[in-house]
């Protein structure tokens, strides 16, 4: 199918092609960051959790439910990721000051350092992978994807990390 014929599509076929392209792009970008993650002994799901906690701002904490919602992880997948990150002293569970029955997940000082290092490495890998794409095209794609995500009920503070819930890869 040529690019011109894709532009003439509408309805279900157009949305199907969009979905297929987004999934393919996700796979290519995950492939691009895989060496950077492996070099620091992190998985993509761990990067997502560390990045979400870091982007929450000080004190770098969120409720587990917020992580599940933002990252589209399953609760079991999140539990697995948190266990691995806790074992490395990168996150801790702290009492929720507003609800004594629950806990928040917080980056430790070591976790803040690790989150910065791994997100910087991943960003550099992504920048390298997309270096041949003009800045204007990237900016336009970002604008269009924000429109689509908004139509699907996504919010700016809840970036979607995966199309399908991760199982804690």
Folded structure, characterized:
The chain has 169 residues and is mainly alpha-helical. The protein has helices spanning 3-7, 11-39, 44-55, 64-71, 75-87, 109-129, 135-151, and strands at 61-62, 91-96, 99-107. Strands 1-3-2 form a 3-stranded antiparallel β-sheet. The two termini are 34 Å apart. 20% of the residues are buried. Mean pLDDT is 88; it is low at 158-169.
Counting DSSP H or I runs of 4 or more residues, the number of helices is: 7
Sheet-strand content, in percent, reads: 5-15%
Mean pLDDT: 88
Please give the alpha-carbon distance between the first and last residues.
34 Å
Question: Could you state the order of secondary-structure elements as H and E?
Answer: HHHEHHEEHH
Helix content: 55-70%
Low-confidence stretches: 158-169
Give the overall silhouette. Answer: globular
The main sheet orders its strands as 1-3-2
């Amino acid at each position: 199918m040529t690019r011109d014929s894709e532009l003439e599509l509408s309805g279900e076929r157009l949305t199907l092609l969009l979905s297929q392209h987004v999934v393919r792009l996700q796979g290519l970008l995950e492939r691009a960051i895989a060496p950077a993650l492996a070099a620091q002994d992190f998985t993509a799901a761990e990067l997502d959790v560390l990045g979400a906690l870091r982007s929450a701002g000080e004190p770098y904490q969120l409720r587990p439910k917020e992580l599940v919602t933002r990252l589209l992880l399953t609760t079991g997948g999140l539990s697995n990721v948190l266990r691995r990150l806790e074992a490395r002293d990168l996150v801790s569970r702290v009492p929720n000051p507003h609800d004594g029955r629950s806990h928040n997940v917080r980056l430790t000082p070591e976790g803040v350092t690790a989150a910065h290092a791994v997100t910087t490495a991943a960003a550099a890998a992504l920048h390298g992978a997309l270096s041949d794409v003009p800045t204007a095209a990237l900016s336009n794609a970002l604008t269009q994807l924000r429109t689509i995500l908004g139509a699907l009920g996504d919010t700016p503070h809840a970036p979607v990390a995966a199309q399908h819930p991760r199982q804690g890869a």
